[in-house]
Each structure stands twice: as C-alpha cells, then as structure tokens.
Amino acid sequence: MPRRLWLSVVVPVALALLTSFAVYRMLLTHTRSLQQVSDTRVIESDLNALMRVVVDAETGERGFIITGNESFLTPYTTSTRDFGTVLSRLRRQLPEQGAVLSEIDALFESWRREVAEVAIRARRRTPVGLASSLDAASDAFSAARAVELRVRLTGDQTLLTRLTSFLDESERALTRAQELDHTGQRRAALQSAQAALERYRSQLGPDLGANAAARDETAPALRDALMALAREATATEAQIAQLIQTGAGKERIDRIRLLVDRTLGEAERRLERDLLLSDLSSRRAQTLALVGPLFAAFISFYATLQGQRRLKASVHQLAAVAKEVASGQLGKRLTLAPGDDLGGLAADFNRMAESLAERERQTTLLVELSSALQTCLTAEEAYRVSERYAASLFAGLSGTLYVLRASRNLMACVAHWGEPHEGGALPPEACWAFRRGRAQQTGRGRAEMPCAHLPTPAPAEALCLPLISQDETLGVLSLYTPSAHDARLGDHTVQRVASAVAEALALTLSNLKLRERLRQQSVRDPLTGLFNRRHLEEALELELHRAERRREPLSVVMFDVDHFKRFNDTYGHDAGDAVLRSVSALVTRHIRAGDLPCRFGGEEFLLVQPGLGAPHAWERAESLRAAVQALALEHAGRALGRVSISVGVATYPDHAASAEALVRAADEALYRAKRAGRNRTVLAALEGGAPPVAALPEART
C-alpha cells in the first residue's frame, strides 16, 4: 500500500475510530454514573420513607398506649402495612445490603409482635382509667364497710352520712368502670358487683342491726370481687408499664434507626463517588472530542460520499416497511440486497415484526376467549371453549384442565388438547401448583419436583398454574412439551399467555359457581330444600304455555299436613320443622324426574306434573298420601307417631285454563278433602259437576 494512501486514509480512519470509541466509552461511563446517581437518590428517598414509617408506627402505638384513643392506631396500622412495601423496594435496589435489611425487618417484626401488639392488646383489655376506677370502687366500699362495723359497735348514728357517701363513691366508680370497659370482657363481673352493691345498700336501714347477717354474707364476696377486678386491671397496667420501662421497644427502634442511618451514609458516599466519576468522564470526553474532530469529520464525509446512495435507499425501504407494519399490516417484511450495511437491522426488524404478529394473534385469541367465557352459561360450556382456544393459543404444546369437584377431595380432568390423555380424576395433592398456590415449572435443569399427574415418561418441560379466584383454588391448568426439541415453556410470552388464560378461567368458573349458588338460593326454600313460591309462579306459567303449545295435560297437586298446628303445639316447632323436612324428602323421592315440587307456604305443598292427566295425577297423589301416612317420624330420639295429608288435584285444561285458576281449583279440592274428613285425595270438580272423592279412614296419630 502506498505511504500516502496509508497516511491519508488508514491512519485518519483508525484514529477517528479510536477517538469515537473512547468518547463513546467515556460518555457511556458518564451516563451510567448519572443513572447510578439517580438510583442512589431513589434509595435515599426510600430509606427516609422507611424511617418515617417506623417512627409513625412507634408514635401511633405510643399514643394509643398513653391515651387509649383508637384513632392513634390508624398511623400504626398504615405504617406496619407500608413497611413491607418500602422494604421490598429496598431489597430490589440494594441486594448487597440484604443482611442489613433482613436485620431491620426482623427488628421491626420483633418490635411489632413482642412489644407493640402485646401493649395494644393489654391497653384494649384495660382502658386508661379502668384500674383507678376499680381501685376507687374497692377502697370506697372497704371504707363504707368499716364505717358500718364501727356504727354497729359504737351505735354512733352520726357516721351514717359518711357510710352513704362512701357507698355513693363506690357506685360512681363502678359505673365509671363499666363505661370504660369497651371490650365487654369484664361486663359480667362488673354487673355482678354492681348488683351486689345495690343488694348491700338495700339491706341497710335505720337500724343497722337488722339484716346484719345478710350484709355480713354479701360484703366479703363483694369486697373480694372488687379487689380481684382491681388487681387484674392493675396487673395489666403494670404489664404495660413494664413494657415501657424495660426499653425493649426503644432498643429495637434505635437499632433500626442506626442501621438505616448507616445504610443512608453508605448511599451518600456512593452518590459522591458517582458524581465525581461522572464529572471525570465528562471532562475526558470533552478533551477527546476537541482533539479528534477533524479526523472524525473527514471519516464521516468520506463514508457519506461512498455509501450515501445505498444507505439512503435502504433507509427509505426500511421506513416504508415500518410504516406499513405500523398501520397494521403485520405480514410485511424487509428484504435488502446481500451485503447491505443494514442487513443486521433488517433481520432484527423482521424478527420484531414476527413477534408483533404473534402477539397480535395471541391478544386477539385472548380477547375472543375472554368474550366467549363471559357468555358461557354452564361450566361445561366453559370447558369446551377453553379446550378449543387453548389448542390455538398453545400450538405445539399439550395440556389439561383440572377442576376441583364439589367434594374438594378430587380434581376431574374436564378438558385436554395435544397428545391423547387418559383423563380421569386425581387428588389435589398430586399437583405442586395446587399445593403451593403458585405456578410450578419443571424440566430443563430445574430443581422443582414434577407433578404426579403429568404423563409418563415425564415431558421435557411442564408448567402448572393454579386457577385462583377470591383466594379460592378452583383447579389447575397444566401445559407440557412432548419432546425437548419443542421445549419453549421458558418463553416469557408463553408464560404470560398461560397466566392470562388461567386468570380468565378462574374468574369465569368462580362467576359461574357464584351465579349457580345465587340462583339456588333465590328459588329454594331453606327449610325443606324444595322450590319456593316465587319460583313456582314463574315455572308454572312456563309449563302451562308449554302444555298448551304441545296440547298436553298438566296437573297440579296441592296438599298440606293434617292437624299441623296441633302437632306443633304438642311436640314443639323443632319437631314440626322435622316433619316438614321428612315429608319434603319423601316427596322428592316419590315424584318423577320432570315434576316440580314446591313449598307453597307453611305446611302447604304443591306439585306441578307436566304431561300427566287427571286420572294418573290422582293415582300418584293417592300413592303419595299413602306413603306419607306410612312414614314413621322421629325427632331427637323421640317417636312422633304418624301424620297424614289432605290432597287436592286439578288438571289443565279439564279444570282451569290459567295458572291462577289451576292453583285455585287444586286449593278448593284440598279444602273439600279437609271438610270430608282429611287424609284423602280429592279431584277438582268439573264445571257444574260433583267432585269425585277417594278416601281412607282418618289416620290416628
């Protein structure tokens, strides 16, 4: 290479590159130092916030101990809650200070548990002034008792005024103690002492010799009770005083303050060091920038002349494709000529576009899944929806969905995709994610134990996520890769999508469970478990319309328990409730699958029997009446004898054309059965005709 070419091209270029690299490194150091300065200022702010939290907690606790005012506990409660949040931030910011922060955490927790909570419980148990009130009540009664004994010995009637004064003082102190006993822990003892004091006063009269024996019996017990209450309250006050005097809490708080100040000092020293380093790097960068500008300008000018056209074309192409991708055409890709200077950037851009397209697809599927789950009316629909969408969201992965049964001792496999799965049920303990209440990932060198429900041989990778809603674990979503070649569960995107699917499923299953529970509560009678009258009115109208549309009969059977009021009066209401439950259970076993049993009110019941004509409805009602009569009843180990029912039957369209008229016809038939002697089944009368009656001799209870 000619010397001129070497000197004019290679050396300036090399010098410019070295200068630029040095300036870049110095500026990078300067930027890093500035970032460290910013981080250090945040750390100082959090350390000061931590100390404020500790001081606020101590101040609130001390204010409550001294005054007994609950409002002082507000800063204490808020500070103990905020302490963990601030400390967690500091752990992330100062990993090298983990031991110091752990010591601060232990000191604060020790102070809260062993000092603050103990003192707060003690102060709540013994409010301010309670011990002095009880002491005053005890002392005043002892003084009154002494005056009474003196009067009885000396006969000095002038002391009666002092006796009355002492008793009044004791009564006022007791009343004050009752007002201070906010928790009610001593309510019974204080009320007993108050009653004893009133009884003692009632036993006093002009002649202290009268009722002396009764007072001698009442006074020691009352004195002992007052002294016991006073001692107990005084002991609690002494416990609080001891906690304060020992200085255990102050030692812990002072130690926390010392550790925080020490850590703050280290942060300030690091801040000064970072500022000095930043200033030094800035000065060096300025010096280098002054020395090499000519060489850098020359290199820049030369490179611009040589590659302006090619670079300009590549940049324009990149901008056009980027604009198309930004407008939503995520399928567009950047293609440059081989050896182009922007080839690496084009590859990165294409990977970014592919990632955006995949994320867009996953987001769309997640939105569709969420929308579909929200419209599901049953859990089975939700299982099928989740199975369909999971196969698309987790392409190349196999998975299962387990849901905890109502018995809470088994989880059933309700959905699966990917490789064939045996299904079945398994105990919740078989899944580590269910046990621990958080995601469990195994495989690829991880130390976590694999779950027992995974297929055999064990998959290359597995991820189990618990379905948690409202602090209740409803099941487990399990994903696994069939082979090591397909292993990608460590990808953050897959984990994010899996977490979103698990959250959506948990929320949907929880809502469906709540919806079903609310529906059952709204339509069921709490005593008998049968449908209530509100549900009957809605269901009967629907069944009547269905019968009219299908041109089928529909029968209504109304019955009530004979002499139920007399039964209640004889055996009590609990036994009456037991009878209603037993009859309801018998009705549930006796009816057909499509019949609707309801409690109409009190001891009255009503059955809706779709598709059943009058003769068959009467036969089934008569069979039910006989079964109730044969029912042997017991309650609390006591035989209740037998009961009978009177039954009225009415059929659409024979006896009525509307729901209200049909129920009224059955009710009238029921009352005809009662007037005919009870314990019988009566079919409603046709218009202008007499009601047919089938009866047995009245059962004897």
TrEMBL record:
PANTHER family: DIGUANYLATE CYCLASE DGCM-RELATED, REGULATORY COMPONENTS OF SENSORY TRANSDUCTION SYSTEM. GO terms for cellular component: plasma membrane. GO terms for molecular function: diguanylate cyclase activity. InterPro entries: CHASE3, Diguanylate_Cyclase, GAF, GAF-like_dom_sf, GGDEF_dom, HAMP_dom, Nucleotide_cyclase, Rev_trsase/Diguanyl_cyclase. Residues 552-686 form the GGDEF domain. The lineage of its organism: Bacteria, Thermotogati, Deinococcota, Deinococci, Trueperales. SMART domains: GAF (SM00065), GGDEF (SM00267), HAMP (SM00304). One of its GO terms (biological process) is negative regulation of bacterial-type flagellum-dependent cell motility. Residues 309-361 form the HAMP domain. This is Diguanylate cyclase with GAF sensor.
